[in-house]
Specification:
With 160 residues, the protein is mainly α. It has 2 domains: 4-69, no CATH class; 73-154, no CATH class. Helix content is 72%, strand content 0%. The chain has helices at 4-13, 19-32, 38-45, 49-64, 73-86, 92-105, 113-125, 133-159. It is elongated and about 55 Å long.
Length: 160
């Protein structure tokens, strides 16, 4: 079973998908089905992230049992933050702060929050690091596994 509800909630929770995007995603799938599933209709009608959470909650509970081989939810969220950074929707400082917060309070990121905060502290101590190719390569390499998770999940969502 593809944990589609988890994937959809992660991309929405990260802010990469906003309300109009998750509604459009649901609407496209509703139009393809003769008898659409209730959860899809509820996603389409969700006005905010809390409504979306309620619309997906039952399906997320069902999916939970088949997620032992899935990466942690927080890793996907951090990957989506990185995609937002790559598209210049957030700054490097925001990326590191948000990633640290997700690793600290989220659902089991594979990287400790301190690792993100340490990089952020270095950057805040020396703003020129943002223009240092070696520093930026280190950022890219640090976020690569998270980006790969997010891109895989996004592809699955788009093809669902």
């Amino acid at each position: 079973m593809i944990p589609i509800a988890h994937y959809l909630f992660a991309i929405a929770f990260s802010g990469l998908y906003n309300k109009s995007e998750w509604q459009k995603w649901a609407d496209e799938r509703i139009l393809r089905e003769q008898k659409p599933k209730l959860w899809l209709i509820n996603v389409s009608l969700s006005r905010n992230i809390d409504d979306l959470s309620k619309a997906l909650s039952d399906l997320m509970i069902i999916e939970k049992s088949s997620m032992e081989n899935e990466p942690p939810f927080s890793d996907a969220v951090i990957g989506y933050y990185y995609l937002k950074y790559m598209s210049k929707d957030i700054s490097i400082n925001e990326l590191l702060q948000m990633s640290g917060e997700e690793a600290d309070g989220g659902e089991g990121a594979t990287k400790a929050c301190e690792e993100f905060y340490e990089i952020l502290n270095k950057l805040e101590g020396n703003k020129d690091l943002e223009f240092n190719p070696n520093f930026m390569k280190m950022i890219e390499e640090s976020f690569e596994p998270f980006k790969n998770i997010a891109m895989k999940q996004k592809e699955v969502l788009e093809n669902f």
